[in-house]
Design brief:
This protein has two domains: 196 residues, no CATH class; 150 residues, YVTN repeat-like/Quinoprotein amine dehydrogenase (Methylamine Dehydrogenase, Chain H, 7 Propeller). The protein is 2% helix and 45% strand. The strands form seven sheets. It has a four-stranded antiparallel beta sheet with strand order 1-2-3-4, with no helix packed on it. It has a four-stranded antiparallel beta sheet with strand order 5-6-7-8, with no helix packed on it.
């Protein structure tokens, strides 16, 4: 397995997002700026630098339909950037936060976006044309600690959040005058803005990345206890499963399809999870390994393997069924983004991390996820 090219954008990358046609990538090099690169003659060139924030940019999302970029920062502010001619022009967002903004994501219809914060608050932002700014409605007094991640349901109404209070929650974000009445379906049909649909107390530690499946039937989120949780029938009576990771905790997750999930985190290697015909989820393999690991393998002690890493021992030393892996990232992977060639089908995805790399992984055949085709 060889890389066609290797490029480090920075010493550390906080987050990244792709343009709709995927010819440009926006990233934060662990400071208060957003750098936009374009591929020119097989080489990435910096074409824009977005400078408006005063502190670390903690979240970036690039809308697929309207070609707008939204950013969130530890300076408690958020901006929506529109391309006017050859310049990116920021539009003010009224967040009303007294703590850092930690994450941001456009809704599927791109008429709203959600911002999670260290103020135990989620801001649901929408555009007011008469004032030419984005205003927010706040979901308050629901979280007991910082909101680490947000994820929109495909119906554009439900929003899942994770928090360092160890819980995953699902809220209704229906805003009269912004959302159409006929778009409200299922468990959110009679819900008002900010109403708590379900609270999941599965993790006893900080909760990080959260994602909905393409159909919205399944929710996956990860905890700092090296566990990943899968929840079906989100509502009054959810069905939950948990899968223990063998090594270090995950930070983020991505659904490839209804039955396959990629998890990334402190282990520096993407991990594949899949559901069988009965809907039972299990760990399948690391991306980059030479041979798949059976879902029934004995993973050994999580703690001994983790400590083995710190003391320079092989992470597979205590596992007879372990295989050699090829590490592509050299530090924690903190962000995973889908790359859709056409429509909603995900055939590629990208990861970025504290090593300053962005890696694009080519899925190819679903049964063989071991090869990537490019390291940027």
């Amino acid at each position: 397995m060889a890389a066609t090219s290797v490029h480090r954008f920075a010493q550390t990358i906080t987050c990244h997002a792709w343009s709709p046609e995927q010819s440009m990538v926006a990233l934060c090099p662990n400071n208060n700026e957003v750098h936009i690169y374009r591929m020119c003659e097989d080489k990435w060139e910096k074409v824009h630098v977005l400078q408006k924030h005063d502190q670390l940019v903690s979240g970036i999302d690039w809308s697929a339909r309207s070609n707008r970029i939204v950013t969130a920062s530890h300076d408690r502010n958020s901006y929506v950037w529109n391309l006017e001619g050859s310049e990116w022009v920021p539009t003010l967002v009224i967040l009303r936060l007294n703590r850092a903004a930690l994450c941001v994501q456009w809704s599927p219809k791109e008429n709203k976006f959600a911002v999670g914060s260290g103020a135990k608050t989620v801001c649901i932002c929408y555009y007011e044309q008469e004032n030419n700014w984005w205003v927010s409605k706040l979901i308050r007094k629901r979280h007991d600690s910082s909101v680490t991640n947000v994820s929109w349901h495909p119906n554009n109404i439900l929003l899942a959040t994770t928090s360092t209070d160890g819980k995953c929650r699902v809220f209704s974000t229906f805003i009269r005058g912004v959302d159409a009445k006929d778009s409200v379906t299922g468990t959110s049909s009679d819900s008002k803005f900010g109403e708590l649909i379900v609270q999941l107390d599965l993790s006893l530690s900080w909760s990080f990345g959260v994602k909905w499946s393409p159909s919205g039937k399944t929710l996956a989120y990860v905890g700092h206890n090296s566990m990943i949780y899968f929840v079906d029938d989100v509502g009054p009576s959810p069905l939950a499963q948990s899968v223990a990771c063998r090594d270090l905790p995950l930070c983020d997750v991505l659904f490839i399809n209804e039955r396959m999930v990629i998890g990334v985190g402190f282990d520096c290697i993407p991990m594949v999870f899949a559901a069988d015909e009965r809907g039972t989820w299990s760990f399948i393999r690391f991306l980059g390994e030479k041979k798949a690991i059976s879902s029934g393998s004995n993973y050994g002690s999580q703690f001994s393997d983790a400590f083995g890493k710190f003391y320079g021992q092989s992470k597979h030393g205590a596992n007879n069924n372990a295989v050699e892996t090829s590490r592509t990232h050299e530090n924690c992977i903190n962000c995973i983004m889908p790359l859709r060639d056409r429509g909603t089908l995900i055939k590629r995805f990208s990861t970025s991390g504290l090593d300053g790399k962005i890696i694009i992984w080519n899925l190819g055949k679903e049964q063989d996820l071991a090869e990537y085709y490019l390291i940027l």
